[in-house]
Design a protein that fits this description.
The chain contains 13 helices and 15 strands. The chain is of the alpha/beta class. The strands form 3 sheets. The protein has a 6-stranded antiparallel β-sheet, with helices on one face. The longest helix has 36 residues.
Amino acid sequence: MLLKLEGKNIRNLDNFSVRCCSCANIIYGENGSGKTSFLEAIYFLGRGRSFRSRDTKTVIQAGQSELVVSAQFDRLQSGVVSKMGVLRTIKGGFEARQDGRVIRTAGELAVQLPIQLIDAHSFLLLEGGALQRRQFLDWGVFHVEHSYITLWRRFHKALKQRNQLLKHDRLRSSELELWSRELVGLSVSIAERREEYLQLLVEEVVKISANFKSFVGMSIEYHRGWDRQNDLEEILAKDLDRDRKYGKTHQGPHRADLVVRVGGAPAVSYLSRGQIKALVYVMKLAQAAIFQRKTGVKCIFLLDDLPAELDVWHRDYLLMSLNQLSCQYFMTGVDRKDFINIIERSPHQILRLDQGRLAS
């Protein structure tokens, strides 16, 4: 849980320092006032990057050489306060510290400050490519089992080595066999951990979505990226000519996917756009619930322009679920009136943004 947040040189925002409510933090203002940039500052703390742009230079305020975000937070809500800060430079530099300790990777940030983002692009979890769904699944596995990141990195190293051999036609059989064998073992381990996590996820999704008539008969299936009825080592041997021709490994967990069905049909072809968004939000709530149950740590939710993304019923249900999880959340919108129902039922604070300037 964030206790205090400070930001410097972030897009059009004035430098700010704000105390955070333990439950609902509402930020409203006209379009272009900096609401999404405020959420972006929090995202930097938990991920070390922006959710709006891969190029950090576009996030740093014009004429400045760096941005800084820092916070006081209580990870376990136990009364133990920590300090964390992230600095990104216009030249691509990255520095992060927690209580004076150097944090070297974004993965370490994510462990300390787990963040769930819900914005206009969240529907891509179902409508986008398989990469988004693998990232969603791997986020869950990693946060439940931190050693998974080591396994994941070892797999991608083996995949890169095998692909390099294929791509440059350096098919020394002993070397290729070595990396193929390494790849197979790691692939099976990754698939097993993803499948174990998916069982937990499906149970939680069913529980949270019990009141959604449109989600009756929903199923979520994991496709490993190869036919699980066959041995991957044999598959790679049979695929060798094709892999050699294209210079890449065609089957493995890097080609895995989640398939979400409703009534036996793919969810994206069965549900309306609003229902798809609601289902994505249910999946993220389920992920947060599993994480909280397994670690005792609560996710921080960033909800960008929620009134524009969901109808009143789905919005109220989402917020009720967040309150049941006792999650801290930061929510933006244009009109203060859109948040009246939230104000009536939750501890909250309301901040207004006017041309980059925060006011209570």
